[in-house]
Amino acid sequence: MSLETSLTSIWEQFLSVALPSKRIYFLYLLSALVLAIITFFYFKYLCKDQEKPEKIDSGIFAFIFDKSVFFHKSAIQDYVSFL
Q1: How many domains does the chain have?
Q2: Model-level pTM?
Q3: Torsion from C-alpha of 60, 62, 64, 65, nearest 10 degrees
Q4: What domain range includes position 36?
Q5: In this structure, what is the dihedral angle of CA atoms 50, 51, 52, 53, given to the nearest 10 degrees?
């Protein structure tokens, strides 16, 4: 495999977020982020204290990017299979 072929392949991977037919599309990511932010503010300001998730007081970043979710065994398997 030549360097040009490798660079083309890498470039296509970065551009794939612009194609709706691909698995990761920027509008999918954006809509998921918007839903996560709406969910955070709902739990933070509109829910009763008994119904709030544990990470809600840690901030929006800790709520959206929870380590226990991203480093779970099944999530790691998904990362490996995606790469």
Answers
A1: 1
A2: 0.64
A3: 150
A4: 3-82
A5: 110
